[in-house]
Each structure stands twice: as C-alpha cells, then as structure tokens.
Amino acid sequence: MLGFGQDIGIDLGTATVIAYVKGKGIVLREPSVVAVNNQTNDVLAVGEEARRMLGRTPGNIVATRPLKDGVISNYTVTEKMLKNFIGKISKKNFFSPRIMICIPSQVTEVERRAVIDAATQAGARRVYLIEEPIAAAIGAGIDISKPCGNMVVDIGGGTADIAVISLGGSVVSTSIKVAGDKFDEAIVKYIKRNHNMMIGERTAEELKVNIGCVYPKMQEEEMEIRGRDLLTGLPKTVVINSTEMLEALAEPAMAIVDAVHSTLEKTPPELSADISDRGIYMTGGGCLVDGLDKLIQNQTGINVMIAKDAVSCVALGTGKALDNLDTLDGKARK
Question: In this predicted structure, what is the pLDDT of residue 205?
Fold first, then answer.
C-alpha cells in the first residue's frame, strides 16, 4: 500500500482507542491514557504503558485521559496521543493517511472541529467524521441502507449513544454522559459510603468487570479488594458481593434505561413497529455489564441483543465506512 497513505478508521473512545486499517482489520487497541512530564511537557508513555501508571505517579508526572465524556478535554495531549498511534500504524508509509473518526451523536460544532484539527495536526491528510451509533450499527452487521428502523444502544466509556437508524442516517438520537466511567465512579462512591474505604478507578473497574451486575444474579459472587481505610488511613481489605454491586450500579443503569425510553417515545410509529419486530442492538464495552440487556428488555418489553464482538463494533463499522471514502472525496467533504 505504499503509493498511497493508508485509510485508517479510529474509534476515539474515552477509555480505549481502537484503530482499523483498510485491508488489515483491527491493528491497534490501546487505553486512551497519556503520561506527561509536567515540567518539560514531554510525553513519557501512551496507551497500556501509561494506564499502568494511573494513580501511581510522582508529582512531576501526570497520567491522564485526554478525552472526557466522549469529547476532547485536553487538546494538546489528544494530538500527541493520536500522533503516537498514527505513527505506530503507518510507520512504513511515505504519504499521510486519510482518517475516519467516530464521534458521539450529539456533539457541538466546536467539539467536531477539535477532533478534525487534532487528527490533522497529528498527521492526517484528510479527516472524516462518522456518528458512533451509525458506525456501531454497520459494525454489528445491520444493513442500515434499507427503509426500516433499527435501534442501536452504544455504551462506551464516556457516553451512551442511542439512535434509531433508517436509510443510512439517524432519525432520532440521544447521547448521555453516563457510561462505563460513571459505573466506575458509582462503585468508588458506594465503597466510600458503605465501607469507609477509598479505592482507585482501576480497582473499581475490576469490580465492575468481575462481579458487577445491574440485574439480580442467579448466583451470588464475591471479590476481595484492597484500599485505604478512611478512618485510620491504613490499608484495608474488604470482601464485596454482587448484591452490593447491584445497589451501587442501579442509578447509572436506570439513567441509560430512561434514555432508551425517551428515544423510543420520540420515534415515529412506523419505525417503532420495526424496532419491536427486530429488537434493540447493544454495542460497546459498557453494554457488557452483567444484566444490562435483561434490564432494558424488562423495562421496554422489546427483545435486546448484544452484538457479536460488541467492544470492536464501532471500529469495525468505521472500517467498513472507509470503503466509501472515495465517494466522499468526490463530494469534497471534510
């Protein structure tokens, strides 16, 4: 592929960046974390290496997530992170790549510009944007070009994007800033309130992945965690069970259910009929929290399916959308 820059599809997630290269599939999956030296502004580590530093750095080094709630919160660091990832992917290429990046469905014009500018500064020849629910639907194998309604609930790290898609575009869409990160925050607050103990976001994430649930489990599960006792200031070990997790995660889970509800209320009746026939598709890493599909199914009365390879759906969809870049170029869209 040397004569031309590669075409790259990027799922620029709050928690993870996944990149897809045309003809090769998914080539990169790294946490969206960057470690920066405060005094010199040098980037010390990006991705997995930087994630291991979260909460464990000396004063002059800060490990941060440059994206918050699905949008860029630190422009300079995002640009450096993208530069690093693009460099890893297309190091053998002489020409700059064309890049398609997915963004939450309800972003402002300023936030759109920030993504385009950051990718351009990081070395893209041309930048295209695609809405996350549309990319997720394509990645889940749904034919979105037909005149029938498909509902996609894409739950990432920073945002939950809900959209009803027909004829290649979203008819009704909602984006809320409640997703994987809010689940982690809810767990940290719960442990602090009920056990007088402070835990870090990594421990919270491990709890969510291993025993977290938002619908009663058939069998109780337990996990031992360590943190700092807020009364004595000393290290402390506690055993947490899945019933406690159910209580901790109830609020953010219901916020997602309410968003699905309000999207269904705004959906035209013809498309509502299609959705009740075809069901709701769930994608994104956040949808893998145990029982979230059952909870939505229970509250809406509509069949809910988790897409195959839910975590990579958005990146795969962005990758498939790369095939249409030449037509977009013909229309001179940017």
Answer: 92
- The runs of H, that is alpha helices, within the chain are 48-51, 75-89, 109-121, 132-139, 180-195, 201-211, 242-266, 269-278, 292-300, 313-321, 325-330
User: Mean pLDDT, the chain, as a whole number?
Assistant: 89
User: In this predicted structure, what is the pLDDT of residue 89?
Assistant: 85
Asked if 281 and 150 touch (Cβ cutoff 8 Å), the reply is yes
Which CATH code fits 181-248?
A: 3.90.640.10
Structure tokens at 305: 């399916």
> Residues 241, 281: contact at Cβ < 8 Å?
no
Predicted confidence (pLDDT) per residue in 73-108, tens digit: 988 899 989 988 988 887 766 678 889 999 888 888
Q: What is the CATH number of domain 143-178+252-309?
A: 3.30.420.40
Domain boundaries, the chain: 7-134+314-330, 143-178+252-309, 181-248
Q: What pLDDT score was predicted for residue 323?
A: 81
Domain 7-134+314-330 bears CATH identifier 3.30.360.10 = no
